[in-house]
Amino acid sequence: MQKLTLPITVDKSHLIAIGEQLYIRSVELIRELVNNAYDADATEVRASISKDRVEVADNGTGMDMDGLKQYFNIGSPEKRLHNKSKKYHRERIGQFGIGKFSALTAGTLFEVRTQCGDFAATVTFDKDEWERYPDKWELPMTVYPADPSRGDGTTVAISKLKKELSLSDVEKCIVESVPIKAPHFNVILNDKRIMPREFAGQRIPFMDGTEFGPIHGEIYILPESRATAEDMGIMCLVKQVMVKREFFGMETWGADMARVRGEVHANFLPITSDRSGFIIDSNEYKIFYEKMAEVIKDVRRILGSLSDKKETQRVKRALKDALHRVQMALSKNPEFSPFGIIPLASEGKMPGEAGMVMEKRVGMEAETGKINQEKETEVTGEKKEKKEKKPSVKKLTPGAVVQKMKLGNSGVSCCIDHFGDDAPEVFTEGTIIYINRDHPLYKREEKKTDTHTMHIARLMTQEISLMKDPANPRQAYERQSKLLKDAFINNEG
Prior knowledge:
CATH class of the largest domain: Alpha Beta
Low-confidence stretches: 343-392
Strand order of the largest sheet: 5-4-3-6-2-1-7-8
Radius of gyration: 36 Å
Number of strands: 18
Largest sheet: 8 strands, mixed
CATH topology of the largest domain: Heat Shock Protein 90
CATH architecture of the largest domain: 2-Layer Sandwich
Oligomer: single chain
């Protein structure tokens, strides 16, 4: 038996494949170069894009001879071993040591010019020259006297471009994939400073801990007028750089999903080498997803309450109109009123005024979830003893809409609120009519402006007619029909 050794070799063309095929989009080379500048403690990075040249210059620490050797050490673990920068103690973004070859996605020649103290040099990588000599692994380097007026820093210039980069795509990439919110760090693209994206709307900050590290961020619920299908989802960032957008179950929300934007930071997440995704079967990602799913549940609840506010305004208007119409119909048919004789109107007033009184929805009643039934006086031509009834109590949500129609010496209150899909569409307790906003029939009619008011009036007249004579539903139905006719047909003028 003969034991031998087998050398492991890497073909030179593999470096070309890494540079040209590692990243999906050419603009990602800008991300890599700017993030390298961030890791080098730069406070300013200037990116210049033209038809035939791309240049990214920074004022970071630069590189000496050892630094250049490390820079061109493919797959170097240097940044993982020393994950904090020297000056600003920034958490370094680079991990794999292969990002510098992203330049080959856009051009076939890139030049690295650097200065660190009294050392200055330029290294050139030319794809054509690299492929011409299969056994030659060296790159040409020129060392020259340092220029104190320039200061330390590194400039990477890419030429022999294969394609022209879109300025808008480059700007978007910088906004999403570069830590431009970090202190002492500015990025300037073609003489324009790139500013972080800001969202307008309801801000929801959050923070949670895991065994791997903290999760924190903020989510915004945009106004409906600003909702768009572009860039939907939550930006997931590792070391202040977006890896991808996630939805965390929002895919089932329909149009509401377009109103949600935000970002979450989780530096412990393991990412793929091209930075386009996460290792989703890792324990870190599973815990992260579970935590974020809980956050999104809270966002859905808040989104529902915000949507409810707008809908509540519509309900208020529809209820007010319905009460007005029903009151007019009852004034024309006083014998249908379960509240006694309706006095004639004085000049300039409706029959039965004090008319309609809007109760404050966000007052004590809505906060405690109670509607107190008032004392009633039955009038049948002779005064009878006043009878005080126990208050009718119903648990209400903060979005409940309560209005009262007063007729004669008494009246009826109408409460429109959420009582659940399985609850009745309408029910009455004492002189309070409850209308269920969650009932499928109500939800269908609520969407139609022209039928919403009529639907509320139909439910109210139904209950009022039954109040008059609960034992005779057929006669109650006929009364309701007459009231609706007078409320809508005879009052249209």
